[in-house]
Amino acid sequence: MNSQGPQERSITEAAADWAVRLHAAGLSAAEQAELEQWLARDPRHPQALDFARQTWDALGELRLEPELAQPRRAPAAQAPVVRRPRRRRLLPRAASAAVLVLAVTLGWLQGPQALLWMQADYLTDKGQVRTVHLADGSTVELDSASAIRLDFNQTQRQVHLLAGSAVFDVAPMGGEESRPFVVESAGGQTRALGTRFVVGRESSQQAWVGVLQHSVAVSLDTPARQGVSERVLQEGQSARYDPLAGVVALEGLDLQRATSWRRGVLVFDRQPLALVVEQLNRYRPGRVVLADSTLAQRQVSGVFRLDMLDTALVTLTRELQVQHFDLAGVSLIY
């Protein structure tokens, strides 16, 4: 958990005020100069402003002007997960800044998860896998520690993958449904040309896509510095994209194994122990740490049940003939 002293709180308050002013209207030349001076005064200021602006965006319909307060249109989804209602309220600048200070402070205290909670319509905790049924007939299977936000309107069905990975089983266009289905994540878009595909967000600028049925069109929001900026993937194909390398085909990726979490298991076939540990940490409470770096490349094969990962860890260390020690939620392998 993080904490804020008086100086950090002052920075948070100033960043919140600037975020509200930037969203309310364009700055005058004098205000712009004042902002640039404030940003240059302390290396913490740009980071604080970025976080405040992200948090303000995440607050959704808390806006200063009516024209900025248009609510997002999204279907009333039927899902085992209860979707949080969004309320539209207009606040004066001072009240808006106060709300933003509170939200930013909570974000600093609780980390990125607090911001994600505000942004997401549906999300899963570590170790959870859930299926969401959308109003258009599509379904989304959310992997562990994953989150999505819906932006359905009259022209398209857009889903923002904010964290983790998800499998999309898309209701096809035809009849009364004329809107394309698009998944946006990490600076790229995946448009359904068929029915079923998976998208995994690896960072704010990198994601991967795999086609389980039919085809998809993958494109970057801005042209790649090198390589292609768009690519059509057929069934069984996959690709990774980022702004530097573009959309790059992934050869030899086993999509059934990569989405084995849908069946309640993790499957590894001659994978390095470091990768196995990384995956265990996505699904298992606490954290597994390799205390001996020389073990990282040891190969692991096996099928581990998601509901028995503690047992899997015991089995794994026994088969590799290594030791593990548990202390306060941390499992050391050495």
Give an overview in words:
With 334 residues, this protein is of the alpha+beta class. It folds into three domains: 6-119, no CATH class; 122-254, Jelly Rolls, CATH 2.60.120; 264-333, Phage tail protein beta-alpha-beta fold, CATH 3.55.50.30. The chain is built from eight helices and 21 strands. The chain has helices at 6-24, 29-41, 44-58, 93-110, 112-119, 255-258, 273-283, 309-320; strands spanning 62-63, 89-90, 122-123, 130-133, 139-142, 147-152, 157-163, 165-169, 181-185, 188-192, 196-203, 206-213, 215-220, 230-234, 238-242, 246-249, 265-272, 287-290, 299-305, 324-327, 330-333. The strands form five sheets. A seven-stranded mixed sheet has the order 3-6-7-9-10-13-14, covered by helices on one side. The protein has a seven-stranded antiparallel sheet with strand order 4-5-8-11-12-15-16, with no helix packed on it. Helix 1 (6-24) crosses helix 4 and helix 4 crosses helix 5. The model is unreliable at 1-5, 61-92 and 106-110 (pLDDT under 50).
Brief sketch in words of this structure:
The protein has helices spanning 6-24, 29-41, 44-58, 93-110, 112-119, 255-258, 273-283, 309-320; strands at residues 62-63, 89-90, 122-123, 130-133, 139-142, 147-152, 157-163, 165-169, 181-185, 188-192, 196-203, 206-213, 215-220, 230-234, 238-242, 246-249, 265-272, 287-290, 299-305, 324-327, 330-333. It is of the alpha+beta class and 334 residues long.
Question: What is the spatial order of strands in the main beta sheet?
Answer: 3-6-7-9-10-13-14
Biggest beta sheet summary: 7 strands, mixed
Radius of gyration: 22 Å
Query: What is the C-level CATH assignment of the largest domain?
Result: Mainly Beta
> Would you report the number of β strands?
21
Number of separate structural domains: 3
The oligomeric state is: single chain
CATH topology of the largest domain: Jelly Rolls
Mean pLDDT: 81
Helix content bin: 25-40%
Strand content: 25-35%
Principal-axis shape: globular
Distance between the termini: 27 Å
CATH architecture of the largest domain: Sandwich
What is the structural class? alpha+beta
The stretches of 5 or more residues where confidence is low (pLDDT under 50) are 1-5, 61-92, 106-110
InterPro entries: FecR, FecR_N, Ferrdict_sens_TM
Protein name: Siderophore-interacting protein
GO molecular function, one term: sigma factor antagonist activity
Domain FecR N-terminal: 13-53
